[in-house]
Design a protein that fits this description.
mainly alpha, 10 helices, rod-shaped, nucleus, repeat, TPR-like_helical_dom_sf, Suf, HAT
Length: about 180
């Protein structure tokens, strides 16, 4: 713990991963410590450990790291002031999706991969919605209108029917005068 506080932990972690290269917990601790120091360093640690140790917990940690470092337009976990820790390691949505794709390819059949699958599907849905919003900006408004009124055609008919009745009453009054309207009612 003293090494972690003084910033001398990197050589300790390096020795530990050389002695125990398949110890996922050591790699995870090293990556978390590296992220606190510098996100580029953490990315290097993750790239090294994921090649050697295909561990579900390491992959989950890496995927959470990639989501935390998404560009501001896509990141739900961004800081309140809109800044990130390190601008050089901001990921695009496509890069995060590629990371999830790699994780699914390696660990997709594992029974513990359900959170990876659900996050991946949520990201795919988000990417699709962003694409649709970009291609058709009116789609959001149309979606809101449909959400408010499940049957807009019937509503339009009812509204138009009332308006047409008002127009017919106006035509009768203009053509025959007010007296004819009184007798019609």
């Amino acid at each position: 713990m003293v090494f972690l506080q003084e910033g001398k932990a990197e050589p300790v972690f390096e020795r530990a991963v050389k002695q125990l290269p398949f110890a996922a917990r050591i790699w995870a601790a090293y990556a978390e410590w590296s992220e606190m120091q510098d996100s580029a360093m953490a990315l290097g640690v993750y790239s090294r450990c994921l090649q050697q140790v295909p561990n579900m917990d390491l992959w989950l940690s890496y995927l959470n790291f990639s989501k935390r470092h998404q560009k501001p337009g896509f990141n739900a976990n961004a800081r309140a002031d809109g800044t990130h820790r390190d601008e050089s390691t901001q990921w695009t949505l496509e890069e995060v999706l590629r990371s999830y794709g790699r994780a699914i390819d390696l660990l997709g059949s594992d029974w513990r991969a359900a959170p990876v699958w659900s996050d991946y599907l949520a990201l795919l849905k988000h990417a699709y919605n962003l694409k649709q919003k970009k291609e058709n900006p009116d789609a959001e408004l149309q979606g809101k209108l449909l959400a408010e009124d499940p049957n807009p055609i019937d509503t339009a008919k009812r509204t138009l029917k009332k308006e047409l009745q008002k127009v017919q009453v106006c035509r009768i009054t203009k053509a025959f005068g007010w007296e004819a309207l009184q007798y019609a009612i």
